[in-house]
Amino acid sequence: MEKEVTLQIQYGQCSWTVYTEGDWKYETFERTYKVGDKLGVKHFHDHVITEITDDQITLVDGDDTQILTHDKPLQVYTEIEGREWSDGCVYDGDDYSTEVRWMR
Asked: Facing residues of 102 across strands?
């Protein structure tokens, strides 16, 4: 029987402009994975689980390898800039935060 793990994903998104900071909106859910599964979550979309042991989960995306343990969640923060003013200043954009936590 293949080993399965349950991961809790917290995904947050915030839209902003030069005049506002914006409000963060979060979605939290749990999903079960096994070796070979893609996380399929924004900013972790192509990360594939390549190994599951009692102590760690190995995730690979191209040349990027990350290790998830019970006591240390994985976090990714990304900012995507939007429109740009004629003077080169960015007018708006979106910030994204994703946290992956291994549930026991």
From this structure: 7
Residues 12, 25: contact at Cβ < 8 Å?
yes
- pLDDT tens, residue by residue, 52-89: 999 999 999 888 899 999 999 988 888 888 888 778 88
CA–CA distances in Å: residue 50 to residues 18, 21, 23, 60 = 41, 38, 36, 7
- Contacts with 5 (C-beta within 8 Å, 6 or more apart), sequence order: 32, 33, 34, 49, 52, 57, 102, 103
Q: Please identify which residue in the block is written with the tokens 């007018």.
A: 91
Total number of domains in the chain: 1
The number of angstroms, rounded, from the C-alpha of 30 to the middle of its chain's C-alpha atoms is: 13
Q: What is the 3-state secondary structure (H, E, C) of 39-66?
A: CCCCCCCCCEEEEECCCEEEEEECCEEE
**CA-closest candidate to residue 92, choices 21, 23, 13:** 21
State the pLDDT at residue 1: 60
